[in-house]
Amino acid sequence: MMLMSRHKDKLAEWSAHVLDTGLAEKVALVTGAKVTGANHGIGAAIARALASQGALVFLHYLRLPEDGLAEGHDQSLYMRNRALSADPIAEDIRAQGERAATGESDLVNPNNIPALFEQVEAALGPVQVLVNNAAVGGAPKDTITPLEVDSKDWMGRDLHPITAESHDRHFAVNSRAAALMMTEFAHRHVARGANWGRIVNISTDGAARFPQEVSYGASKYALESYSRSAAMELGRFGVTVNIVSPGPIQTGWLRPEDEADIARSVPLGRIGLPEDVADVVVFLASHQARWLTGQLLFVGGGHRML
Predict the structure, then answer these.
(1) Which of 78, 216, 221, 226 is catalytic?
(2) CB of 107 within 8 A of CB of 173?
(3) DSSP assignments along 108-119, one per residue
């Protein structure tokens, strides 16, 4: 009887949270850097989705010039979006009655990371949900194969041999910055005696191997390793750490003919949308994911399966 009573109490507790993510008034920081940001695409969708659950959202971004962002592409809208600030997204969130703030900095510079947390705290309060959406990709595409064999990728863009610069350019943001962001988050979390926190790191479902973008894939694979270690280390402080690995997502970089070809490789029959990723991030940040940590979720309509 006592066991049944405890079970009923737990069931009642669980039921109370079924429709409540527990994110109201939680401070969330969504990062973006170089050619991926919280000013559009996946970062913007994540920020909007968290705000819709009542979270106080800080959108970090880094604008880039329009030229040279997508070598070999003709997606001018895609390139223009990457050169925008995140201010319009924050304004839209505030227009819905939620709180949002923005800040621009380059996470390649490690000194900008504690400064970013200070900025968030001044605007909204201590960070409780960290989404490492920052990524460096795009041109140049680096490869290990001699260019005499393959000089173009599958979209006709120029390939370049892997160099120390191309390696370091990717790892500086995709791996190092994310690791330093988690470290700064943990330091501040422990210092204030907090006992609840969420970290969600955005990888790619090609991280285990990414031919023709070898440094991008390898740097994301390193991010996944950092994430699992962080989950092991930070669990005792009430922090969960999980990984979202998107499949192909249309943020403007795919041409219509490419989108149709890729969709045929997706069991659910379409290319992903930024909102598909954002919904999973909200879940991992929510009360409902309280018993998940150190996990990787492929978010790609079945594009990759274990």
Answers:
(1) 216
(2) yes
(3) TSTTHHHHHHHH
> Which whole-number Å values give the CA distances from 186 to 18, 53, 108, 151, 291, in the listed order?
28, 24, 20, 43, 19
Structure tokens at 32: 């973006």
- Judge whether 35 and 82 are in contact, CB under 8 Å: yes
Please tell me the distance from the alpha carbon of residue 237 to that of residue 174, in angstroms, as a whole number.
25
Pull the structure tokens for residue 216: 């991008």
* SS3 (DSSP) at 33: strand
Residue 212 has what DSSP assignment? T
Q: How far apart are CA 40 and CA 43, in angstroms?
A: 6
Cα–chain-centroid distance for residue 212?
A: 22
User: Domains of the chain: which residue ranges?
Assistant: 27-139+170-299
Q: Do 287 and 234 touch, CB atoms closer than 8 A?
A: no
Could you confirm whether 216 is annotated as catalytic? yes
d(CA 207, CA 220): 6
Question: Could you read off the pLDDT tens digit of each residue along the chain, which spans 306 residues?
Answer: 555 566 556 656 655 555 799 999 999 999 973 344 455 689 999 999 999 999 999 999 998 765 544 444 455 555 566 677 889 999 999 999 999 999 999 999 999 999 999 999 999 999 999 999 988 876 567 876 766 666 676 666 777 788 898 899 999 999 999 999 999 999 999 999 999 999 999 999 888 887 768 888 899 999 999 999 999 999 999 999 999 999 989 887 777 888 888 899 999 999 999 999 999 999 999 999 999 999 999 999 998 888
Please give the structure tokens belonging to residue 261: 């070809």
The Cα-based distances of 35 to 4, 65, 174, 179, 300 in angstroms read: 54, 10, 11, 19, 21
Model pTM score? 0.87
Rounded (10°) CA dihedral 297, 299, 303, 305: 20
CATH code assigned to 27-139+170-299? 3.40.50.720
